[in-house]
Amino acid sequence: MGKRSMPETSQDGGPHVPVLLDAVLAALSPLAGKRIIDGTFGAGGYSRALLEAGAVVIAIDRDPSVQPFADALATEFAERFTFVPGTFSELDTLAADHGPIDGVVLDIGVSSMQLDQAERGFSFMREGPLDMRMSGQGESAADLVNTLEAEPLANLLYAFGEERKSRRIAQFIVAARETAPIKTTLELARIIEKAIGRKPGDAHPATRSFQALRIAVNAEFDQLVEALFASERLLAEGGRLAVVTFHSLEDRIVKRFFDPDKGGPAQSRHLPQVQSEALRWVDVAKAAKAGEAEVARNPRARSAILRAASRSGAAARPVSYEGLSVPRIRGAA
Ligand SMILES: C[S@@+](CC[C@H](N)C(=O)[O-])C[C@H]1O[C@@H](n2cnc3c(N)ncnc32)[C@H](O)[C@@H]1O
């Protein structure tokens, strides 16, 4: 997470405000007549702008609660908009019946709706069940905090939240659940605060742990890696991929995926230089961030980073985590 982490606040009540929208559109342009996958539909901010620019959009989201936003766009742009429920790790399979694709956009992370709705359990500021499942399926955050032993729990908080006080937090969690299972967001937030204290002016002590649990519950790193390689398989030469991330652990994965040489081991100057593998991605754009005006309008944009590149003609690679610096939980299989 480094210095950047997901802000906990968002535009209360209103739907998600799209982040870095102009830069995303520019990264995918020209758009008229192009077929674009919006892999993270959310409230449809990107999809709408892509449709208004003349593109055909195939939108994906794993959260069933976005359906009303999708229905509204399907009514307005009947000919050019399709919504496919599912995970973006499978975007090439989900798009298989939709013809050749010219571009993919991913806006990784939680939406304002998910954060703001207390009952989804993503926020340590709002009392709700400790859930955090974007799809509503599988293990919840409560399942993890109530069943993992102290050591694997600490390892999870450290790997996915870069929480340096992970051991102490895990000990407090394990002690607290001996009395009764931890069921709600604020219960967990209070336990973490008791474990590591709270300094005025600092981020809430539960920030990193909540991020770690959310990433684990939704297998967010695996989803991202799979989606990057799925895009590589799907896009033909010249196809564009644009990815917006919200913390440095994710941004590093995207950066290294586009430019594997940057992440690889340094070559010894005493050995013959090894020829770099064929580049799968070219025209790799410099990372783009929100300007002051956008951050003032939408504080959530503060930590956003957009990376974009064009597909080369080189054959797609098999999925591999090597060189991507994907955080791994110590001791996990
Ligand atoms: C940051 S929001 C996207 C907001 C959108 N760009 C907009 O303008 O409204 C991220 C969305 O991606 C979805 N999402 C996250 N991970 C996903 C995954 N692995 N597969 C499919 N959808 C995912 C979330 O459910 C959420 O609705």
Brief synopsis:
This protein has 333 residues and is α/β, with parallel strands linked by helices.
Ordered list of secondary-structure elements with their pairings:
Layout: H1 21-28, E1 35-38, H2 45-52, E2 56-61, H3 67-76, E3 81-85, H4 91-94, E4 103-107, H5 112-116, H6 141-147, H7 150-161, H8 166-179, H9 185-196, H10 207-217, H11 220-234, E5 240-245, H12 248-258, H13 260-263, E6 281-282, E7 288-289, H14 292-297, E8 305-311
Parallel strand pairs: 1-2, 1-4, 2-3, 4-5
Antiparallel strand pairs: 5-8, 6-8, 7-8
Q: What is the percent of helical residues?
A: 25-40%
Sequence of secondary-structure elements: HEHEHEHEHHHHHHHEHHEEHE
- Which strand-content bin applies to the residues? 5-15%
Q: Mean pLDDT across all residues, rounded?
A: 92
Unreliable spans: 1-12
Look at the helices and sheets and give the structural class.
alpha/beta
Distance between the termini: 23 Å
**Count of β-strands:** 8
Query: Major beta sheet, specifics?
Result: 8 strands, mixed
Say which molecules are bound, naming each kind only once: S-adenosylmethionine
Description:
The structure is a single chain. The protein is an alpha/beta fold. Helix content is 38%, strand content 11%. The protein is built from 14 helices and eight strands. Strands 1, 2, 3, 4, 5, 6, 7 and 8 form an eight-stranded mixed β-sheet that branches. Helix 7 packs across helix 8 and helix 8 packs across helix 9. The protein is globular. The N terminus is likely disordered. S-adenosylmethionine binds next to helix 2 and strand 2. The site of S-adenosylmethionine has 21 residues, from helix 2 and strand 2.
